[in-house]
Design brief:
Heat Shock Protein 90; 5-stranded parallel beta sheet; elongated; alpha/beta; 6-stranded mixed beta sheet; Rossmann fold; single chain; 388 residues
Length: 388
């Protein structure tokens, strides 16, 4: 067989034809070449492996019955090579038994054409598998770009966390210094205390943001203790009160379907920081998603397992339902990072629970934090004699 000369052209797809019988392959090579493909013809399996290793083609048309090394062996060795395994292999053979076809696919072939073949059929299959191959390569390239972008974003996040520490020190120190000033009203002192609490919480968030990575890797060491969830909810309300007031929203908190009494304590096992972060994220999202003049309902349940649900009169766009808790998924928020729901579920799972969402009645959304059984304790204050 005369080897068809190859003119290297990076704009053309290269097809390798491997067959020890020249007649059909010469004709097929000329036809494919006339349709714009770059052709390499090879007469043996070992030579095909050598040529492919030096200059990988975009697709291989491979005969089965060849001396020394048959097509099955050639395909198997190609698929075992990390650099060559993605090259699509189409078998062209006079063998037309079902077992031959099954074996061809089992060793990694993407298609099988029996001789005698029609050129139009070969051309259609070549076009299809080249398109699929290029689509896979493009997808792989996009995934690599995405992974690199995520890596760079993580680096930027770490730099930002580091750079935030200096200005945060002022927010931590100044309110404490001002609290010692004379002639402050009780309202001014309350505001300074609120500012100091927020600064400490922000500082803790910055310092502990690395914990998110540990949670993803499953290496985070949880230090559980008793956490009063009702107290945390009230702290979140206080911090987000301005945002809620701007939309004229009201909060309703129920415990086992009844309004929460003033001194009732609902303790869950976990970490204060994790519960605050989860609830702050979810309540803030509920406020932002809610229409004006509505209420946000927070329901606490003690049985059959401890749960916290947050319901608002807003909807999550259907196009992100299946991806709501994935990293960087957001919709309709010009400044949204897409990390709130992602980190909230991660923290919930770190606590041994789960975070889910339920499109409730028409126009409503309910997010449900479910904790592990026996992790909650309800404490109801005893009534004083004068109250009885």
């Amino acid at each position: 067989m005369n080897k068809i000369p190859v003119v290297i052209d990076s704009n053309k797809e290269t097809i390798m034809l491997v067959d020890d019988t020249p007649t059909n392959m010469d004709l097929l090579g000329q036809m494919l070449q006339s349709n714009g493909y770059q052709i390499v013809t090879i007469s043996s399996g070992s030579q095909a492996l050598t040529e492919a290793a030096q200059t990988p083609p975009d697709l291989i048309l491979l005969d089965i019955n060849m001396p020394e090394m048959n097509g099955y062996e050639v395909c198997g060795l190609l698929k075992a090579d990390e650099k060559l395994k993605e090259i699509p292999v189409i078998f062209i053979s006079g063998l037309d038994d079902t077992t031959d076809k099954i074996k061809a696919f089992s060793v990694g072939g993407v298609d099988y054409v029996a001789k005698p073949f029609r050129f139009e059929e070969i051309l259609a299959r070549v076009k299809t598998h080249l398109s699929l191959c290029f689509a896979r390569r493009e997808l792989k390239k996009q995934n690599e770009i995405l992974q690199e972008n995520m890596r760079l974003r993580d680096i930027v996040d770490r730099i930002a966390r580091h750079d935030l520490k200096s200005p945060l020190s002022s927010f931590l120190l100044v309110p404490e210094m001002l609290l010692d000033a004379p002639n402050l009203t009780s309202e001014q002192k309350d505001l300074l205390k609120m500012l100091a609490e927020s600064a400490h919480r922000l500082s803790e968030t910055v310092h502990r943001s690395l914990d998110i990575y540990k949670m993803e890797q499953g290496t985070y060491q949880l230090t559980p203790g008793s956490v009063d969830v009702i107290k945390i909810i009230r702290e979140v309300f206080r911090e987000l009160g301005g945002l809620a007031n701007s939309k004229n929203l009201s909060f309703v908190v129920l415990l086992d379907q009844k309004p929460v009494e003033e001194k009732v304590v609902f303790e869950l096992q976990g970490e204060n920081f994790l519960f605050f972060s989860i609830l702050s994220n979810l309540i803030k999202n509920a406020i932002e998603a809610s229409p004006d003049d509505k209420e946000i309902l927070i329901s606490l349940s003690t049985s059959p397992v401890p749960t916290i649900s947050i319901k608002n009169f807003g909807t999550i766009p259907p196009q992100i339902h299946d991806r709501l808790f994935q990293r960087y998924v957001t919709c309709g928020k010009s400044k949204g990072t897409g990390l709130g729901m992602f980190s909230a579920r991660l923290m919930a799972r770190t606590l041994g629970g789960e975070l889910t969402f339920l499109p409730d009645e028409v126009g409503c959304t309910k997010l449900i934090l479910t904790l592990s059984p026996n992790s909650g304790t309800l404490k109801i204050p005893a009534k004083k004699a004068e109250d009885q």
